[in-house]
Amino acid sequence: MILSCDSNNHTRTYHLPKEKINNIQAIEQTAKISELTWEQPNTWQPSEGSSMRMASYSIPYSGGAGDLSVIQLAGTGGGLEPNVNRWRRQLNLEPLSLIEIEKNIIEREGKLGIFNMIQIINEKTDTAFLCAILNLPENTIFVKLSLKPNGIPEVKDEFIIFCSSFNWTN
């Protein structure tokens, strides 16, 4: 909107031509929009989560049930180091340098390419996270499973299969 003032008390209006939209271009843009899908193991139960979560699951294991969250953030979602250190603080652990974090990263292959996994364990409080980070072209998917450390060996294979299954529908 353009405003203009002068000493006269009259209103001026302006007309701007509308940009013509190429129908082919609009169809191509619509076709690029895909939905993210995944395969959930049969024993996992959908659960209630926060509005930030794309999905939430209760993951049963012999020591109880873990809480799994799937969150999508724009771009890099802040990056590897800040996210891992945020998770570490949630478990009352000291932050690590990026070099220390990278030593603990395990790379896995999924349908969308390579993703990173990390285990974060606080033995003193008997709490742990099993996390995956999937870097996509325009956003990042964070998968975090909160459980007791002794549950990790029981659910780790299903967690990897789940994270490996992320794919685009189209």
Q: Quick recap of the structure?
A:
By secondary structure, the protein is α+β, with helices and mostly antiparallel strands. The protein has helices spanning 23-32, 80-90, 98-104, 152-164; strands spanning 35-37, 45-46, 53-61, 64-74, 106-110, 113-122, 127-135, 139-147, 167-169.
Percent in helix: 10-25%
Number of strands: 9
Biggest sheet, spatial arrangement of strands: 2-3-4-8-7-6-5
Largest sheet: 7 strands, antiparallel
CATH superfamily: Mog1/PsbP, alpha/beta/alpha sandwich
The 3D shape can be described as: globular
The proportion of residues in beta strands is 35-45%
Distance between the termini: 39 Å
Multimeric status of the protein = single chain
Report the CATH topology name.
Protein Transport Mog1p, Chain A
Catalogue the unreliable spans: 10-16, 23-32
Order of helices and strands: HEEEEHHEEEEHE
CATH architecture term: 3-Layer(aba) Sandwich
Work out the count of structural domains: 1
Radius of gyration based on Cα positions: 23 Å
CATH class: Alpha Beta
Secondary structure class reads alpha+beta
What does this structure look like?
The chain has 170 residues and is an alpha+beta fold. It has a single domain, classed as Protein Transport Mog1p, Chain A, CATH 3.40.1000.10. The protein has 4 helices and 9 strands. The protein has helices spanning 23-32, 80-90, 98-104, 152-164, and strands at 35-37, 45-46, 53-61, 64-74, 106-110, 113-122, 127-135, 139-147, 167-169. The strands form 2 sheets. A 7-stranded antiparallel β-sheet has the order 2-3-4-8-7-6-5, with helices on both faces. Strands 1-9 form a two-stranded antiparallel ribbon. It is globular and about 45 Å long. The two termini are 39 Å apart. 16% of the residues are buried. The model is unreliable at 10-16 and 23-32 (pLDDT under 50).
